[in-house]
Amino acid sequence: MEKILVLDFGGQYNQLIARRVRENHVYCEVHGYNVFDLEAIKKFAPRGIILTGGPQSVNADDFSVDGKIFELDVPILGICFGAQLMAKVLGGRVDRAATSEFGRTELDRLDGSRLLDRMSARSTVWMSHNDRIVEAPRGFSTTASTEHCPIAAMEDDARKLYAVQFHPEVVHTVEGSVIFDNFIDICGCRRDWKMSSFVETKIAELRSTISGRALCALSGGVDSSVAAALMSKAIGKNLTCVFVDHGLLRKNEADEVEAVFKNFDLNFIRVDASQRFLTRLSGVTEPERKRKIIGEEFIRVFEEEAKKIGAVEYLVQGTIYPDVIESGLGKAAVIKSHHNVGGLPDHVDFKSIVEPLRLLFKDEVRAVGRELGLDEKIVSRQPFPGPGLGIRIIGEVTSEKIKIVQEADAIFRAELESAGVKSNQYFAALTNMRSVGVMGDGRTYDYAIVLRAVETTDFMTATATRIPWDVLTRAADRIVNEVKGVNRVLYDCTSKPPSTIEME
Ligand code: XMP
Question: What's this model's pTM, rounded to 2 decimal places?
């Protein structure tokens, strides 16, 4: 299979780079520069390499990289920090820019660039840098500039080395996709990475590597459902799906999941573990601790079920690529320990963990689900985090709070759906703020519910959905009237970043 390697220097948009490549039907993987050395790169045998952005300076004393990467005779595209790295390692000069550029910037393209071919002479790009290239290495020519960045792009086409100071991967770079298209052509990739080929190859691979019984951690969400369907195609009745009701699911969700999966040709077990999760979470308020406890307790329940079934060697999880990357690959800051990865305890009592979707993005997972013939209701479900309502209740989790957030959430979702409001993810969460209200003729001192609805394609960045005012106020009215313990409803209109989608 033809592959492109994204060598990750810890920039915040690195996942998007991988998305842009895969949109072109070319498979690619993201690996941290500090764990993926020259030998690993050679073994990976990429058709092209993309060096990402990153928070550090190429001139920092504690930073070094093996310059031999530029001698591999593989096309390389350096983006932002990656561009500066290419310049510095190959004998050019990088300095702190007199004026940093952040945000939308006008780029002037010079003639004769292979990488920027077909871009407009002037176009808008997204800049985010403090350093800049002040002298291109020998053999390179400058191919674009901006007001404050005379070398905004450079290339040495003979050696197939290309560099851009701006970020072609973010949507604000209006013609960014042209750059990826050109780079993939330069790499000579056939663009034949398709979900049907993924499904076929994956099933064959799973069949040949898994010889015993496997247990699938099924949450009813898209990822674990698709993982279960894929595994059941590969190993049939050797697969048992265990659905842990941790008591932190949405209203009636446990019954709905059971109803769907009872119709599948696989062994299905539902475990009611709500009380033990509540006990473990009692008194815990710190978000990361809550995540770790829920993740660990999950595994313990699975281990126990596995023992009951007997001779289970593998644990199947629906981990997807954003979970892996957001949990801290390379040097990117750890934002949250995602349930499927960072939440795992150090010791897990299975021979191994199988994560068949580990390298796929959400929309690719949905495509695999469709390929496998899964019900559209499941495939197009909005995401629901592994730790469930545990991270939608700020502070300590109690059964009273779970009930409140379940009821409020059901009302909000029903109101949005009946009004036909389009949003990629929408839910209610419970703040731990109590405030004074008046109901009837009496004073109340109750909780505030926060409503969240976001527009996003990759769940890495998001903006708040513009819900029509009458829909929002109708939901708020219903919530305060119908949910005991709530006297205030707030709408969260922050974007991600700087906020995140979930509360914790
Ligand atoms: P954040 O809150 O990080 O969420 O902006 C981004 C997306 O990821 C989902 N999410 C999770 N999914 N396990 C999951 O499977 C988790 O631990 C987890 N935490 C957040 C969240 O619902 C949103 O879609």
Answer: 0.67
Same domain, 430 and 314: no
| Domain co-membership, 173 together with 232 | no
Task: With respect to residue 503, please indicate whether it lies within any of the assigned structural domains.
Answer: no
- Regarding the beta carbon of 362 and ligand 1, being less than 6 Å apart is answered no
Structure tokens, 324: 């892996």
Q: Which residue's CA is minimally distant from atom 7 of ligand 1?
A: 459
Band of pLDDT at residue 380, cut at 50, 70 and 90: confident
Nearest CA to ligand 1 atom 22: 385
387 pocket-lining for ligand 1 (C-beta < 6 Å)? yes
Average pLDDT over residues 256-285: 90
| Cβ-proximal residues to 499 (8 Å cutoff; 6+ apart), any chain | 492
Q: For residue 504, which atom of ligand 1 is closest to its CA?
A: 2
| Ligand 1 pocket, residue 452 CB under 6 Å | no
pLDDT confidence band for 336 (50 / 70 / 90): very low
Residue 252, number of CB atoms within 10 A of its CB: 11
Mean pLDDT of 470-499: 96
Distance of CA 271 to the CA centre of its chain: 28
Quick one: 106 and 254 in the same domain?
no
Residues 359 and 261 in one domain: yes
Give me the domain span that covers residue 49: 3-186
Q: How far apart are the first and last CA of the chain?
A: 39
Give the atom of ligand 1 at the shortest distance from the alpha carbon of 383. 24
Q: 375: CA distance to ligand 1 center in Å?
A: 23
Measured CA to CA in angstroms, residue 32 lies from 7, 353, 428, 452, 461 at distances of: 6, 22, 36, 33, 21
Percent of the chain topping pLDDT 90: 62
Residue 443 pLDDT greater than 80, yes or no: yes
How far is the centre of ligand 1, averaged over its atoms, from the C-alpha of 55 (Å)? 24
Q: Ligand 1 center to residue 182 CA distance, Å?
A: 33
Q: Would residue 203 count as lying in a domain? A: yes
Pocket flag, ligand 1, residue 492 (CB < 6 Å): no
Q: Measured between alpha carbons, how far is 470 from 418 in angstroms, rounded to an integer?
A: 13
- CATH number of domain containing 97: 3.40.50.880
- Positions marked catalytic: 80, 167, 169
Q: How many angstroms is it from 388 CA to the middle of ligand 1?
A: 9
Cβ atoms of 6 and 31 within 8 Å: the answer is: yes
Asked whether the beta carbons of 465 and 472 are under 8 A apart, the reply is no
Structure tokens at 452: 């969240």
For the CA of 338, the nearest atom of ligand 1: 17
